[in-house]
Amino acid sequence: MTSDIRLVVLDMAGTTVADGGLVERAFATAVQTLGVEPGSPRFEEQLAYVRATMGESKISVFRHLFGEEDLAQRGNSAFEEAYGALVDGGLIEPIPGAREAVEKLRGSGRTVVLTTGFSRVTQDAILDALGWRDLADLTLSPADAGGRGRPYPDMALTAFVRTGAADDVRQVAVVGDTSYDMRSGVRAGAGVVAGVLTGAHGDADLRAAGATHVLGSVAELPELLEGTG
Length: 229
What we know:
This protein is of the alpha/beta class. The chain has helices at residues 22-32, 41-52, 58-66, 69-88, 98-107, 120-130, 154-163, 179-188, 203-208, 221-226, and strands spanning 7-11, 17-18, 93-94, 111-115, 138-140, 172-176, 192-196, 213-215. The strands form two sheets. The chain has a six-stranded parallel sheet with strand order 5-4-1-6-7-8. Helix 8 (179-188) links the parallel strand 6 and strand 7. Helix 1 (22-32) crosses helix 2 (41-52) and helix 3 (58-66) packs across helix 4 (69-88).
């Protein structure tokens, strides 16, 4: 029963936050520092992987692409710096209705946690840019959950343990815009694993990864959980 959900774990970029493709822009800047030129065959191959793994922890993506830990750390640091600069430049905004959805969810007695595949520093920059520091009950990055991001269930399970808001993982809803969000929700045993169509992946990919529901946007979530949507 969707009405039994007590804890809602929400992704940020693509789900509650519209960043207009800043991930790809920041990636292009980052890989240049490692000698990969935008437009080159290697760049296009790497960019395709970035698009396919949207939602995964960014350091994990760089580890896959570059193999060596030193290169991965350098690339990830350059990415986070570039993304942070774009955020500071005012190039992000809330998904329409996202703030209101979170407020409705909390107003109905549910606990809301915002999660990201970015670092804590970048997550905080996004929260500050949007004025969202106090919007949710808790915010989590992969580092806050032992270092593993999606598709692992760690952030959802960390939210479950740290908030104490639910008695059973089936009282948890995990919501995101990527197949990796869906897989993390399934692996966490969440009762609701909802995909939204405002980000990286479409209906077919979300359902194939285990989505129990697919919504036009996070703005529809309160109605779903109240059983009226």
